[in-house]
Write a structure and sequence with these properties.
three-stranded antiparallel sheet; about 575 residues; four-stranded antiparallel sheet; alpha+beta; 14 strands; about 45% helix; HIV Type 1 Reverse Transcriptase, Chain A, domain 1
Length: about 575
């Protein structure tokens, strides 16, 4: 007998032995004497009642109820799968006669009459997409970009994308994650919107496809109140859909602000114009092959759905869409004659020199390209050419040649710090959330990365996201980012440049947070950081109006520590007094 597998929602025992499977399937009597004796004692009337019960189980409604209750996909299946679930019924306390009745129903439906769908057969075919593959292929041929790679990308819009599953998907029924239940109204609206858009099919009262898998559903609520549906294809651990996808086929290289800075200098430096555009519902533009739809199912409020376009939560979705995005990027480069165009997944941005009024810009070429091939753009995120544009969450100003942290992001970071700085312990997930926000702020002030070292070390000192970590005085000190946040508010950027003839190795090690390398280069350096001179305070810009002072964020940690010590001492004294009183009373 194999080891017990881990299942979501139902505890299914290990698969029975072949002999036991054959016994169940052909409705033979139990081989054990204890189970065989009651069967011989059944009279003629009881046998007739058993046959009547079996006929009742032949009704499709009862069969479909069995499928919903025990996670059996209501589709033509092999005897191996049928007997596997029937063995579970017998081991879970169901009587032998009930198990035989259900087995007869499944055997009859699967092998004689076939399945009668209560909800009707689902439509077949890939998801509808606004992208026009014929027009895209024609444009690639005109611009000389036709290649096997581009043809493979275009073909996905016709027949659907291959998720790269290396094996069959196990039918399961997993419960939804807590984030979906907390935002039930927003999730219901999002599910209905996807059904109306044609990228999700449903609802069905029963699992609608062969080998249907119900994956956990998660949700992330955006600032506008809408929910983004995330199909958790990484659960359960060890038997997830993502486990069947080779991680080596999912690597993606994203553009960065450093590449954008190099393009700004290449286009003339100060005064160059920036533009930005965002593809709307990016993953939903690419359909999935129909034979893989059963792996993308989920259940919401008792109804079954499945996604037919690239889902959020699939390991290979970013790579599949990024190949299409890179094709759009190459097309606009050729059309405009400007190579200063980048993309970060569905975010497109670029640089163009200051042009005369009426001149054709790279931005206008990109808009015409998307209109021709049918790529929808988010109107609220379009940024026409300007010298000050927010790109990847950072405000880039080419007039002042600096990066700035938007005020709303600064307020969010301060609120996060205010929440965690008053705690003595925090979970690993909370510390990593703070570190992620601070790492984003380091785009404006790169030396701030050195302050992340101890925060990350504390977060990775435990294994699980919900494990709690003690916030030491060193971590509290790193959370006091006066210089970093004031510089980010004022739009300062510290630029480290190499001076010929000088050894910049120690400075480079510090800027990258490589403390071990710095110690090797400067073994006699002070162990503690050098305090900021008092005279430097005048050089630091004041924070943005409306942001709270950072002195209110940092709580008196040392005062809390001394108060806790004082309370412990008082408790010890009280215990000693009680012991003395008890001794005096008994003496």
């Amino acid at each position: 007998m194999k080891a017990r597998p881990v299942h979501c929602g139902h505890s299914v025992p290990p698969r029975p032995a072949p002999a036991e499977m054959a016994h169940f399937y052909f409705l033979q009597r139990p081989s054990a004497a204890a189970a065989d004796a009651p069967a011989r004692a059944v009279g003629r009337r009881e046998r007739a009642a058993l046959r009547a019960a079996e006929e009742e189980e032949l009704r499709p409604a009862n069969y479909l109820d069995f499928c919903r209750r025990y996670g059996v996909a209501p589709t033509p299946a092999s005897s191996d799968t049928v007997v596997y679930y029937l063995a579970h019924l017998k081991r879970s306390g169901v009587t032998v006669s009930t198990a035989r009745q259900r087995l007869a129903a499944i055997r009859h439906l699967h092998l004689r009459r076939g399945l009668e769908f209560a909800a009707g057969a689902p439509p077949d075919g890939p998801a509808p997409t606004p992208v026009q593959p014929d027009e895209l292929e024609k444009l690639c041929s005109e611009l000389g970009l036709a290649s096997p790679g581009t043809r493979r990308v275009i073909q996905r819009f016709r027949v659907g994308a291959d998720l790269g599953l290396t094996g069959p998907v196990t039918p399961r029924h997993c419960g939804n994650n807590r984030s979906a239940d907390l935002h039930a109204e927003a999730v219901s609206a999002a599910v209905q919107a996807e059904v109306e858009a044609g990228v999700t099919r449903g609802p069905f009262t029963v699992p609608p496809l062969p080998g249907f898998r119900v994956n956990p559903l998660s949700a992330r609520v955006k600032d506008n109140g809408r929910a983004r549906l995330i199909l958790d294809l990484s659960a359960p651990r060890g038997d997830a859909v993502n486990d069947l996808i080779n991680p080596d086929q999912c690597t993606v290289r994203y553009a960065s602000l450093d590449e954008l800075a190099r393009l700004i200098f290449a286009q003339g430096g100060a005064g160059t114009r920036l533009f930005k555009a965002d593809v709307r519902a990016a993953f939903k533009l690419i359909p999935v092959r129909p034979d893989q739809h059963a792996a993308l199912g989920f259940c919401w409020q008792g109804q079954y759905y499945y996604q037919i376009a690239l889902p959020f939560g699939c390991r290979v979705s970013p790579r599949l869409f990024n190949e299409f995005a890179e094709l759009l990027r190459d097309l606009v480069r050729v059309m405009s004659g400007n190579n200063a165009v980048l993309n970060y997944l569905d975010d497109f941005f670029g640089v163009e020199p200051a042009a005369e009024p009426g001149a054709v810009t790279t931005f206008s070429c990109f808009l015409s390209l998307c209109d021709r091939v049918g790529v929808p753009l988010a109107a609220d995120k379009l940024a026409p050419p300007a010298t000050r544009v927010e790109i990847l969450g950072i405000v880039v100003d080419t007039d002042r040649m600096c990066y700035e942290l938007p005020a709303r992001k600064l307020l969010a970071i301060l609120a996060c710090l205010r929440d965690i700085s008053g705690r003595r312990r925090a979970t690993r997930r909370q510390l990593l959330s703070v570190a992620g926000r601070l790492a984003h702020a380091c785009r404006c002030v790169p030396p701030g990365r050195a302050f992340l070292r101890r925060i990350l070390d504390a977060a990775y000192s435990v294994a699980q996201p919900l494990h709690r970590v003690r916030i030491t005085a060193a971590v509290q000190a790193d959370l006091r980012w006066h210089l970093l946040f004031r510089a980010a508010c004022g739009g300062y950027e510290l630029v480290v440049r190499h001076v010929a003839g000088l050894d910049n190795g120690p400075a480079d090690a510090l800027s990258r947070g490589d403390i071990a390398r710095f110690r090797r280069l400067r073994p006699h350096a002070a162990a503690r950081p050098t305090p900021l001179p008092a005279g430097w305070a005048d050089c630091v810009a004041d924070p943005v109006a409306g942001t709270p002072a950072l002195t209110h964020v940092v709580l008196p940690y040392h005062l809390m520590r001394w108060c806790s010590r004082f309370i412990i001492i008082i408790i010890i004294i009280i215990i000693i007094i009680i012991i003395i009183i008890i001794i005096i009373m008994y003496c």
